[in-house]
Design goal:
Low-confidence stretches: none
Structural class: alpha+beta
Strand content: 15-25%
Helix content: 25-40%
Number of domains: 1
CATH architecture: 4-Layer Sandwich
Strand order of the largest sheet: 4-3-2-6-5-1-11-12
Number of strands: 12
Largest sheet: 8 strands, mixed
Shape: globular
CATH topology: Glutamine Phosphoribosylpyrophosphate, subunit 1, domain 1
CATH superfamily: (Glycosyl)asparaginase
Number of helices: 9
Length: 307
């Protein structure tokens, strides 16, 4: 069992660039970005900060990096815009905040947190969420800030083929997230995404849905998911893991294995998640080729992409 005073894990999406297409330069860039985001969270926890502040800092760092499909690196919708989703939850009182389908907000995670802390609601969407962001004086950016040549070419290809696709053609699920346990024993989780390239009709995935893509409960665990969102919604993945721990007494590792390696696979759902339990144990299961991830547990820091 982990006896370190705090733990944190982050992800930049399950599924990866194929090894054959991964250059040393690309790998270094991804590892550096993951390391930077992890250290942003560690810096908060080292100063006896809260798990909530730690996951906020880590996800903000990932949203600011164009390598990941969240915030600045968000993919293009069918209409050529960027519609972003995010959520955050704290385990000591089960409070949460989520936003869906927002455009122009620099850091959707900060808007999700504002929904949790400064509104009477748990989920705001689209133009209403943007109006709330302006009322909270959160920063906005124009479309040029979110433009990325790689994302644009992916969108053009998807338009030509008239299909909705994941982050990369090599099936990278573009979502970022963080989970943490602080020295006070509190848990928190956050997830943020730009969704699917060429998505239509205001499609929303699992990231902003509490219990599906994000969940935190001090009694059990904190979870942030990444994968084919429809399957994660239908399987209520994040809450399912917590329930297996609470009602069946499974360990975090066993609960994660049951859901990610068995239940999701049986349904054809691909992806993964990051998790931390009430004791600070970290688990990072995935059933895809890889998962962009980094974690700090028992005083040791790790960064990985492939298995």
């Amino acid at each position: 069992m982990n006896q370190a005073p705090f733990s944190i894990a982050i992800h930049g999406g399950a599924g990866t660039i194929l090894r054959t297409n991964m250059t040393p330069e690309k790998e270094h860039a991804y590892n550096s970005a993951l390391d930077q985001a992890l250290k942003a969270g560690i810096a908060v926890l080292t100063e006896a900060g809260t798990a909530l502040d730690a996951v906020t800092a880590a996800v903000t760092s990932l949203e600011n990096c164009p390598l990941f499909n969240a915030g600045r690196g968000s993919v293009f919708t069918h209409d050529g815009s960027h519609e972003m989703d995010a959520s955050i939850m704290t385990g000591h009182n089960l409070e949460s905040g989520s936003v869906a389908g927002v455009t122009g907000v620099r850091n959707p995670v900060l808007l999700a947190r504002a929904v949790m802390e400064k509104s009477e609601h748990a989920l705001l969407a689209s133009r209403g969420a943007e109006a709330f962001a302006r009322a909270m004086q959160l920063p906005f950016e124009d479309s040029a800030y979110f433009h990325n040549d790689l994302r644009h070419s992916q969108w053009q290809e998807a338009l030509r083929d008239d299909k909705i696709v994941l982050d990369h053609t090599e099936k990278k699920f573009g979502t970022v997230g963080a989970v943490a346990r602080d020295i006070h024993g509190n848990l928190a989780a956050s997830t943020s995404t730009g969704g699917m390239t060429n998505k239509k009709w205001g499609r929303i995935g699992d990231s902003p849905i509490i219990g599906a893509g994000t969940y935190a409960n001090n009694a059990t665990c904190a979870i942030s998911c990444t994968g084919h969102g429809e399957y994660f919604i239908q399987s209520v993945v994040a809450y399912d893991i917590s329930c297996l721990m609470e009602y069946k007494g499974l360990t975090l590792a066993d609960a994660c294995h049951e859901v990610v390696r068995k239940k999701l696979v049986q349904r054809g759902g691909e992806g993964g998640l990051i998790a931390v339990d009430h004791a600070g144990n970290v688990c990072l299961p995935f059933n895809s080729e890889g998962m962009y991830r980094a974690w700090y547990e028992a005083g040791q820091q790790h960064v990985a992409i492939y298995r």
